[in-house]
Amino acid sequence: MTFANGNHITFVSHGETTLLSEKGKLKLQSHLDREEYVARVLDREAKSTPPEAAKAMTVAIRTFLQQNANREGDCLTIPDSSATQRVSASPATTGARTMTAWTQDLIYAGDPVHYHGSRATEGTLSWRQAMAQAGQGERYDQILAFAYPDNSLSRWGAPRSTCQLLPKAKAWLAKKMPQWRRILQGETGYNEPDVFAVCRLVSGFPYTDRQQKRLFIRNFFTLQDRLDLTHEYLHLAFDGY
């Protein structure tokens, strides 16, 4: 098929893709199962290897779809566009379907989710960086936690974050870190975290989730709260030592 801009593609369809006329213009429209759609986007935007990077990417793709698609009855609609998501016109590869099935229904609930081929910023998963992280042995949930520190794994039908953020606590800690760095950087095992989140503790004692890089404290009102936060930060900064 040749498009108006001169681009052309060859693709396979088993009846899911149709050619429509809308306001005098022709357009392609596909009706896809959600997980087949995620797998096709993985094929188009990235690839199915390395596995842990691909798993992280499928969660990001699915989350972006939930956050940005329009609803028409029981269906979700989203344009095939570089401004949203690019989707393969042909059926998904076996590898992409396998990775998508592994993370079926999983999303990363919380703040808006974005991804990019090479650009790495907070709130944006970089495919290039995800591949490097997977090559270093990181799991898909660790890759996601690095890209989206304020979000949590959840299910499509229950998009709730398990981290109730304490932004004032995080801001206080970020202000203190440069002061502490001058004291701690000469200590064995010190490794200042690039990203982290401070979350409200529902019950129990303050603790650190090292894998997700999250500090859980009761609140941020008292001196004891600041001491708890400092204590948990040190656990994270000296992780593995």
UniProtKB/TrEMBL annotation:
This is DUF2300 domain-containing protein. Coiled coil: none annotated. It comes from Escherichia coli. The lineage of its organism: Bacteria, Pseudomonadati, Pseudomonadota, Gammaproteobacteria, Enterobacterales. Residues 23-83 form the Sporulation stage II protein D amidase enhancer LytB N-terminal domain. Residues 123-240 form the DUF2300 domain. It comes from the Bacteria.
